[in-house]
């Protein structure tokens, strides 16, 4: 997950400079139609382009290998780490209500969760911008052999946090930024401690319902994807293995959500503009820390495309799905895509790279 225009959106390697609007041309329907025709890395793809510069939606490939069923442009998919946008938005809304303080510490909200080796306090803000210093749990969840053995297992977030925390701090809080899921697993627990309710309730009440994101839901331990969706696959020596079904509790508040291009478009536009967030909350959302090597803000990342063009967004992947959402601050262009990849754990999807290039020029 990381890098530039011709890198997947997961690769949106953004920098801590003032936000700028991007000037984009009208969408090129021929280029976009060609881009969503998957190459050998994928079985299907969909994309949605919207904004004042024009709109387009379409798909390519097949929703199920061995059939001619097309990928539905409004189908659902596992968004992976785009879940972090939802969790960060819920945290910001809770702060607006006075229920949560992003500058309060993990040790305050969750006493005893971290071992004594963590001498320095870690703030909720540092969880959300990946400067907390807590190691990941270390489970090889994108290794096919491990995935096939454990795909239906249920995981407890406290246990996962303690697995990573047992290694002790990787660095002092705020010293540098290391992207990963662990901060958002802890953030989900903090939200539960602050509200006295499951973290998913905050996401539903404060994000999904106000924005009318009817395609989006938190699956819990349900391994299936509800409604219309393209299947995900892993190419093996014995042929294609369907990886669509998986218990998403391992990802939880960091990467569990199922959504659609339509809903992700609406979410990003609400975060970047309009009354959904206060000016203060939006500034916090988009504040990239000054820590060494920092590129991410609160669940969102900034990408400079060159020539004064800047977009903000997030990428995410799960086995069988590689996705991204990004948009300009002036509302001229928003892109959402989902590619049904055939190899889990890869850094780049050539199909996704072509879609990004076609959308932003």
UniProtKB/TrEMBL annotation:
Keyword annotations of the record: Hydrolase, Signal
A Pfam match: Beta-lactamase
InterPro entries: AmpC-like, Beta-lactam-related, Beta-lactam/transpept-like
Record bears the keyword Transcription: no
Organism superkingdom: Bacteria
GO molecular function, one term: hydrolase activity
Domain Beta-lactamase-related: 33-358
Signal peptide region: 1-21
PANTHER family, per the entry: D-ALANYL-D-ALANINE CARBOXYPEPTIDASE, D-ALANYL-D-ALANINE-CARBOXYPEPTIDASE/ENDOPEPTIDASE AMPH
Protein name: Serine hydrolase domain-containing protein
Upper classification of the organism: Bacteria, Bacillati, Actinomycetota, Actinomycetes, Pseudonocardiales
């Amino acid at each position: 997950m990381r890098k530039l225009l011709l890198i997947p959106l997961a690769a949106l390697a953004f920098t801590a400079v003032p936000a700028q609007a991007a000037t984009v041309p009208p969408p090129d329907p021929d280029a976009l139609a060609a881009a969503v025709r998957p190459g050998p890395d994928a079985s299907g793809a969909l994309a949605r382009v919207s904004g004042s510069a024009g709109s387009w939606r379409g798909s390519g490939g097949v929703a199920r290998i061995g059939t001619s069923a097309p990928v539905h442009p409004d189908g659902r998919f596992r968004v992976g780490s785009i879940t972090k946008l939802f969790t960060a938005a819920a945290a910001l809304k809770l702060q607006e209500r006075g229920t949560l303080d992003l500058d309060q510490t993990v040790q305050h909200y969750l006493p005893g969760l971290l071992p004594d080796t963590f001498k320095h306090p870690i703030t909720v803000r540092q969880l959300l911008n990946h400067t907390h210093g807590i190691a990941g749990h270390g489970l090889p969840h994108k290794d096919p052999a491990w995935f096939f053995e454990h795909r239906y297992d249920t995981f407890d977030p406290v246990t996962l946090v303690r697995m990573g925390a047992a290694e002790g701090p990787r660095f002092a809080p705020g010293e540098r930024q290391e992207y990963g899921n662990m901060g958002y697993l802890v953030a989900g627990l903090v939200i539960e401690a602050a509200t006295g309710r499951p973290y998913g309730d905050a996401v539903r009440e404060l994000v999904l319902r106000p924005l009318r994101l009817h395609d989006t839901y938190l699956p819990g331990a349900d391994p299936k994807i509800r409604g219309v969706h393209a299947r995900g696959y892993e190419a093996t020596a014995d042929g294609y293995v369907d990886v669509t079904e998986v218990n998403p509790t391992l990802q939880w508040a960091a990467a569990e959500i199922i959504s659609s291009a339509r809903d992700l478009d609406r979410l990003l536009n609400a975060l970047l503009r309009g009354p959904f967030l206060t000016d203060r909350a939006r500034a916090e959302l988009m504040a990239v820390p000054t820590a060494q090597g920092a590129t991410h803000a609160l669940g969102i990342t900034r990408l400079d495309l060159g020539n004064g063009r800047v977009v903000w967004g997030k990428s995410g992947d799960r086995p069988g799905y590689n996705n991204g959402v990004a948009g300009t601050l002036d509302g001229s262009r928003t892109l959402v895509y989902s590619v049904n990849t055939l190899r889990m754990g890869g850094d780049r999807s050539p199909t996704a790279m072509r879609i990004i290039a076609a959308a932003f020029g």
